[in-house]
Amino acid sequence: MKHTTRRIGFITAAVAAICFSAIPAAAKFTKGPYIQNGRTDGVTICWESDKSQAATVIVTKSGATAASVAAPGDSDFHKIKIGSLAPGTTYDYSVREADGSEAAGSFRTFPAKQEPFRFAAYGDTRSLHYLHRALIKWIIKFKPAFLLNSGDLVEDGTKPDQWGAFWDIVEPFARDAYYYPVLGNHERDSEIYFKYFDLPDNGKDGRYYSFTYSNVLVVGLDYDELLSGDQKNWLIKQLKASDADFKIVVFHIPLYSSGKRPPNVFLRKIYVPIFKKYGVQLVLNGHDHFYERSVDSNGIQYVVTGGGGAPLYDFVRKIPESVVRVKVNHFMIFDVSGKRMDAKAIDIDGKVIDTFTITAK
Question: What is the pLDDT of residues 126-173, one digit of tens each?
């Protein structure tokens, strides 16, 4: 009897082990969920799991369902467009995968009319992840509606693991606020960049695009197509058509910089007259790893905000347009109210290193 009991106990344990191992592990969210491509009537919700399966995105307001959209099970990455929402409204959302895995966040649709708001900017987040993570923690405290990245998000855009580290850092922000990048040279024109971002489709496949939030027009350009007639003509069309109080252009390589690279005199001849003619007040760039603000003879502000997490650069010259320059990791905060935009550059310790104001005409 003792041998029989022992044998039965062994068989029971073995069966239990087999049954337990047969239960599939729940999916893990490897990226996101995060929000993209904000609009007055909707948003895009993106996420990636460690396996392909069907899912449902549920959007609620005050506990009531505002939208429910099914995601097919043929991919581990999803971009789900949500529409028919009210402008300037805060919603909660949850992603529920077929195996029961769930993650949630919130978002606010773009306002349909002018209202005070805040946005942030930085660039060259690249390789020093502890610095990038520290800056994101600061930015979250300011609760901006969106964040602009002036390019070079990662060290090598063709490396999937680097994008994994990037999304691990920015996910706490991007889950609830909009993240808008432009291409840098370190993206290497990688298809991975285009996979993970859902940018406005009014330009060229996410290479360049524009959006308007309240009374601010933001135009993101592809630095590699600055000599392209198609992009230049598209830019002019966007600027000319907009009646926004503020017009901001973002692209990677700076027109004005005291860094180690030769001045972009040729590009200045092309773009400065365009900016002047169509009322651009602010140009945001990266590429050089420091903070520098320059003002041209037209009063246009040119800011190099390249201190997001790449090794810092030294200044090698002093251009006459330069007003403030600091070799430091940093981010920027912009507060817009009516026809006034107040800007602050803030270093990694929370110290304000520059302030300026732009007043709409």
Answer: 999 999 999 999 999 999 999 999 999 999 999 999 999 999 999 999
The pTM for the full model equals 0.91
327: its two tokens: 């070799």
DSSP codes of every residue in 46-81: EEEESS---EEEEEEETTEEEEEEEE-SS-SEEEEE
User: Cis bond leading into 262, ω under 30°?
Assistant: no
CATH number belonging to the domain at 29-108, selected among 2.40.340.10, 1.10.1060.10, 2.60.40.10, 1.10.3380.30: 2.60.40.10
Q: Phi, psi (5° rounding) for residue 229? A: -65, -35
Structure tokens at 118: 């805040």
Contact predicate 164/196, CB 8 Å: no
Which architecture does CATH list for 117-359? Answer: 4-Layer Sandwich (3.60)
Q: What is the largest CA-CA distance in the chain?
A: 99
| C-alpha closest to that of 91 among 78, 109, 103 | 109
